[in-house]
Amino acid sequence: MLPFGRLMRKGCWSLALLLLCMVSQTAFSQQQQEAQVAGVRIDPQGVLQHQIFQDPTGMLTRERIAAARATLPPEVARPSKLRKIALNRLEKAVMENGGVPTDEMRYLAGLLRVRYVFFYPETKDIVLAGPAEGWRFDLADRAVGLSSGRPVILLEDLVVALRAFPPGGEPTDLITCSIDPTAEGLANAQQFLSTLGRFIPAGTEAMVAQYMAENLRTAVGLQKITIQGIPPDTHFAHVLVEADYRMKMIGIGLEPPPVRMVTFIDRADPSTVSREMLVRWWFVPDYQCVRRSEDGLAIELVGSGVKLVGEDELVNVHGERRATGRANPASQAFTTSFTKSYPAIAERSPVFAQLRNLIDLCIAAAYIQKEDFYGKADWRMEFFGDEKKFAVRTYPAPKAAPTAVNALVKRSRVMTPFGGGVEIEPAKALAEENLLSDPRGEVAKVREEIRSQLSTNHWWWD
């Protein structure tokens, strides 16, 4: 057998290699996907690990559903088109329970998505409303709806969003998550790529691809995880990280897409992606997502809520990056397809529904602060706003992710796409140019319809 150095210089085949800052090389068949769930774990050192949870017979899932139906109170378990939660009453209820939330409080009575934010001056209630149902835990231990499988919103995530837009405090301008290679890692990768020849003999493609993948993984090393705008040691931050890396794994073919869509690997063309190019993909909100009542006392969150965007960057031999302001055709096809398919993806893959929920929570919290519902409700959030009284920073902070590589034999170049993340600017959704009007008064009408229910002292109701 010829040494690898000679293999690279002989023959008539070529190699196109896809490299991304992710954590797993596992390939899935569609049949396997239906019997397993993907998730992540952040170890005590802050290193992200990809995990697969299997339930081949479905027995564990059935047992969890049966246990949930047997233990949940009927009024919580039944589906609701519009469950209402009064935030100031909820805080009071947790305090009256010794500062420890019940499961009903911890999972916000099964709220699946925030659709409305209402304020009632006469009772000083700040209310979130949306669809809800009873919950159970999936294979990755996410709380999901009994029937829908959609993730339930967690109280701790709500609190993180409210703290980002606190009463009497400064708003958080930008919430970001990114997983990116270090300059040293990029320089090492460029150095390794520069040693490669262009051709390999027929029949050795898989062996050479594996060799290159292993060497590039070693050259790049750990990718750096950066969280800004919210504490990294929260469940909120973990969701941002998981959504980011699993999106990229779908893009480069290391995780099958949950629905039929175009991925980067489907359209990748070595003639348009050079070895010096770094491809970035990141999530942003669809900022035209808020419909406001004329009096400003109610908003409705509309649309799919999330977009995937991309951009190419150039990397020099020193690992320094420079934006190009454009994306290659394969990247454009992937981001467009992912955005168009997002509602269906979120239905099948809970982490993407969780990401959408976090964006909704941030926009809702930003609106509450902007309209000073805190002050009008005389709600200072002294319990939820204090980490010493109500702790949400109880997770290992994500710091790094191992590099993952997927190698393919194509024409004559080596492609190395990296980078991306999540960027949320809640204030953009509330800018006048992005706000949607309510010409027929539909949002105000819904607010008025539940006014008669405000006499109850309970923190949630249907």
Describe the structure.
The protein is globular. Strands 15-14-11-18-9-10-16 form a seven-stranded mixed β-sheet, with helices on both faces. The chain has about 450 residues and is α+β, with helices and mostly antiparallel strands. It has one domain. The protein contains 16 helices and 19 strands. A hairpin with a 5-residue loop joins strand 7 and strand 8. Helix content is about 35%, strand content about 20%. Mean pLDDT is about 85; it is low at about 1-35 and about 410-415.
- Total count of domains: 1
Low-confidence stretches: 1-34, 411-417
Q: How many β-strand runs?
A: 19
> What spatial order of strands do you see in the largest sheet?
15-14-11-18-9-10-16
Radius of gyration: 24 Å
As a percent range, the share of strand residues is: 15-25%
Terminal residue distance: 72 Å
Give the key terms:
six-stranded antiparallel β-sheet; 462 residues; seven-stranded mixed β-sheet
Q: How are the secondary structure elements laid out?
A:
Blueprint: H1 4-7, E1 16-20, H2 30-34, E2 36-42, E3 48-54, H3 59-71, H4 74-77, E4 80-86, H5 87-96, H6 103-106, E5 116-120, E6 125-132, E7 135-137, E8 143-145, H7 155-164, E9 175-180, H8 183-194, H9 205-220, E10 223-228, H10 235-251, H11 264-267, E11 277-285, E12 290-292, E13 298-301, E14 306-315, E15 321-323, H12 329-348, H13 350-370, H14 373-376, E16 400-401, E17 404-408, E18 420-424, H15 426-429, H16 442-449, E19 460-461
Parallel strand pairs: 11-18
Antiparallel strand pairs: 1-17, 2-3, 4-6, 4-19, 5-6, 5-13, 7-8, 9-10, 9-18, 10-16, 11-14, 12-13, 14-15
